[in-house]
# Entry
Amino acid sequence: MKCLLSALMVCLAPTLVIAMEFRFDGEAIRATGAIEKGDADRFAATVAPSIDGPLFTVSFDSPGGSLLEGMRLGEAIHAADAGTMVERGKNCLSACAIAFLGGKTFGSYAHQVRREIEPGARLGYHGFFSGRRDQVELVNEVLDQSRLVNALLLDYATRMRGVDGGLLSRLLTTAPAEMELIDTPAEIAGLGITLLGDPLPLPEDWPTLACRNAVQRMIGAFADAKPLVGPGAKRTASLEALRRQMLDDKYPANADAGAIRSALAGLAPGDAIDLMVGEPVYADPENPPVRVPLSQGGGFLGNACYAMADASFVTTIVVDGIDRKATLRQDDPLFAYDPDRPLW
# Structure
């Protein structure tokens, strides 16, 4: 969501511009105020030596500040194996949002990121410029300033890992006088962010959205899944009803599948469903999956998609009655939302 920096009542509360203060609050490191030259060195010298466990997290509330110092601070946080966070109602904007990308899992050999926000947090990006004779302005004698800044930021994001370069490039096209707030599933996933707090209520059309997202993953980014996902989502009445419907979707009665249908019909419903999918489904007898009809076309052969959701996962099963395949996915609950629809 875009907002104008001049609209302070909408974007952020008025904030006194002072150098960033770091304060320990248990394993939370409260980082407040503007990012100024020297903050990264202060963090490395006075904060990083005390980070000795996996739960230490830098919790930001900052309007931004020096872009280059924001990158240096992100690198210092990354080197200290600390996570980053923006809490509900707090701001991390401009250069702060760049530092936020430094969040890292403690002691992770896999170099996993740990960046977290709560619903209602204001994490915002925009394009950068400088009108001063500072480090960024000096290199303008050789290269166009905005191109150089973006190249520096993309190189930094690559080193921090877990950032979709295409998404960050788009965020950096936001006018300097505006701010793109991170509040959609696509943005959250593209920046490697985990959403904290109680699960958000699922949208009414979550089965259709989850199945559309599953089909989109199957056909790739250059095709459109929307025409392939039909209306008429309907919850199956029981595991027995699920078994019967999945048999019809995967092994149509008019196909040469009589022996398979008979064998699967003779098993317990849960066992038959697991065999048809090829792995355990763990369908809840009290809350069976929702069936979403699919259309075939453009090389896509799916007949139906089955969707289940709980607090931890969204599960989709795309069934293909031509090749007789079933593709199961388990994803973050945000998979059941429109990727471009703001969550708050």
Notes: The chain has two domains: 2-195, 206-336. The CA atoms of residues 167 and 284 lie 37 Å apart. Confidence is low (pLDDT under 50) at residues 6-16, 137-143.
